[in-house]
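USER:
I wish I could look at a protein chain and see how it folds. I am handing you a single protein, as its sequence and its fold in token form. As I understand it, each token names a local backbone shape. I hope you can help me see how the letters and the tokens relate. The protein I mean follows directly.
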Amino acid sequence: MRKKKAKLRARKKKPAAKANQAAILKERFEAEFAQAVKTAHAYVENPERLQALFNDAAKEAATMPKEPFAEMWPYFQAMLRLIRAYSRGQYCDVTDDTLVVIIAAIIYAVNPLDVIPDALPALGYLDDATVIALAVRRSRQALDDFMTWETTAL
């Protein structure tokens, strides 16, 4: 009887431990993204620095697997093109708040040592894809407007 109770207690502790790990991971994720947002503010007014971020991000994106990003991959590519056009002064029809979200998502995605290190097979880009999806959710209209501009600007 005691063994059964001990097993039941052990089983009850596992979900609590997983919940604790999830909370720690979420806290770390939020802290990492908050840092990316702070850093992103410095890029908005510095075209050279923004262009350098684009160059680094474009190189990194060329090596990233597309699968974790699924339907967000075209939007991630649009984010890259938007910051390039913005840094060149070609496209400025985006609010600073939206630009900061986009830049922060790119900063996070190109950081190889984020919450889940990119070197981990099959898992490394899941957090990056999540950040990109959240950024797209907050900036979809601006990205759609940018892509329309791209196709109509001559």
Remarks:
- The two ends are 79 Å apart (CA to CA).
- The helical segments are 2-44, 47-63, 73-87, 96-110, 126-152.
